[in-house]
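Today's session is about reading a structure prediction critically. Students often jump straight to the picture, but the first step is always the sequence itself: look for stretches that repeat, for charged clusters, for runs of hydrophobic residues. Only then move on to the predicted structure, which in these notes is written as discrete structure tokens rather than atom positions. Here is the chain we will use throughout the hour.
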Amino acid sequence: MKIKEINTMTYDTDEDHTPTQAKHADRLGSASSSDLERVVINKTAVREILDQAKAQGRTSLTAPEGKLVCDAYGIAVPGEGLAKSAADAVALAQGMGFPVVLKIISPEILHKTEAGGVLVGLRSAAEVEQGYATIMANAAKHDPHASLLGVQVQQMIGGGQEVIIGAVTDPSFGKLVAFGLGGVLVEVLKDITFRLAPLNREEALSMLDGIQAAEVLKGVRGAEPVDREALAAMLRSVSQLISDFPEISEMDLNPVFASASGALAADVRIVVDFAPQPERYRPSQDDILRQMNRIMRPDAVAVIGASAEDGKIGNSVMKNLINGGYEGKIYPIHPRAEEIMGRKAYKSVLDVPGGIDVAVFAIPAKFVAQALIEVGKKKIPGAVLIPSGFAETGNVEGQQEIVRIGRQYDVRLMGPNIYGFYYTPKNLCATFCTAYDVKGKAALSSQSGGIGMAIIGFSRSAKMGVSAIVGLGNKSDIDEDDLLTFFEQDDNTEIIAQHFEDLKDGRSFAEVARRVSKKKPIVVLKAGRTSLGARAASSHTGALAGNDKIYEDVFKQAGVIRARSLRDLLEYARGIPKLPVPKGENVVIITGAGGSGVLLSDACVDNELSLMTMPEDLDAAFRKFIPPFGAAGNPVDITGGEPPATYANTIRLGLEDARIHSIILGYWHTIITPPMTFAKLVIEVKEEMKAKGIEKPIVASLAGDVEVEQAAEYLYQHGVPAYAYSTEIPVAVLGAKYKWARGAGLI
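Below is the predicted structure for this chain, in token form.
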């Protein structure tokens, strides 16, 4: 016997051949959390059911088969049986007790209600006998060619809150579990949340809080709260089931009746797909690091298509490598030139006498494949493919060819259709864009060349130091999780910010991001978040699985911070590293303008920040420094006419009191406390407290004339993310820091 322990639940994979129908025949009530502390899994029973469905060429399981699958994984379902005649139906109903539900059983009729194949609340033998005939007639009329196997007689249950638990198979993320309110609400509100399967207990419980109507489960208007542990256990059982059997493509438990005493799945729908899934190419983490370290930190670079002619991409790459200060070896590759920019040129990389770490391609697409073979024979670990003309123009075969060559020779491909990349610790500008030399700790990447140029421009304008800027383009090979793996161990990187339009292997990204985000913040800007095109699917869960909702929930599960705009991505990359990790959730606003205080408070709600309820003694302490017509509480409104000392005293108090964990400053431009005076006193108090071992996150919003711009820049340069003319951005940056700290388990 092999035992797999998953938190409080035990999954037993013993080859247990005891009929599950018999073992659970007396289960008429719902399963409680205590019942589910030990779940014995019977994989053999599920395998037999699936093999039978496959042999019969079916794409779904019947309701009785669904019940047996649930029994095999400890998923509580009502008592039921299959009737092949009206007499059978009456006997079953009398045995389990009225009222009962009747449901048509047919492999071809997946949505029974639409076929008139469901009757509920039958309370007598006569009603059951007539109901059997009605359902069979309705089903035959709905689909004259359907195989009608009989009618399922099921104990009718009620009471509690209706929820839906389901599963879908996403092309990028693979197996996902879904949870939401059941019945009509899930159809109308689409209030549903997703997580990657399999789940642990904490992830399952987080799903219960991940829907907008989470408060309903806690009990409202006198209703009892549901048994959260029972629901979490059911979610985990579903997640384990679909992980163990990949051929289960979709699953619905809808409705599940959740009450204070447990959870019971009233209806089961399982869709299967036996087509073999293509294996994804996934190098080991060690192999990724081995090659990415040489690509990103090369000692020798070859430029294939190097040119001495201005205006050529190969010319720009050469200039950037040289003018950017790269101190490694540069090998120009050109079929006819003897030398380029004072460096000996070679007809092929095979002619270069020394080793090469990365080759930058600046030649037309039609020549890339042959040159890549030579790169492979030279045992160069990486190729930076700047040329366009591949999958983005419809040349899918051309892109597939270079991928095949790369795999054959163990060459990792960056691109094609990219601007190249920068790695500032090596003064490396392997790109045709302008050179960049502002060094820092932020690593950024983009799928789009245009977004990449915006990243370069913002970074230069804001004086945001970067460790790397990388273009990924078509992502034929190297993608976001390869970069995460490299930046995780890169001492020159403290935060990773990525723009992308899709993830070719979302599960791999999530697995790597979950690990990396514990050490370094990851910020992503996923384009296309407002797309209305949800995939058509055979189950309610699948139909509700809008692609962006999956991204949203998986990012949360992996501890990734999601930016809603390009500006957010850039501001988070710039601001998050400036802030120390908060030691708790209590945030206090100190402002010189009541209007700013209101807007800052709204922004706190929008960014899931907790405004501290001011204790009486702390309230009294703040009141000592502000005028009688000011307002303590939170926000602390010191009013606009106060001298610098009032700002200094209140900020000092906020930093000194251990109950306050973060401070948001709202400054209003006045003659009494000019912008630069305010900025300098903030930094003086901050440094004074730092000398005493006190550091807390501080962000600032500055309202006023153009002088506030200089003051905001001064604050930023000294470790306080500050923004002129905005109450939203500073709070969003603080909120992003909190999201990362929570996900990393630091608060």
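Discussion point for the tutorial: Residues 125-142 form the longest helix (18 residues).
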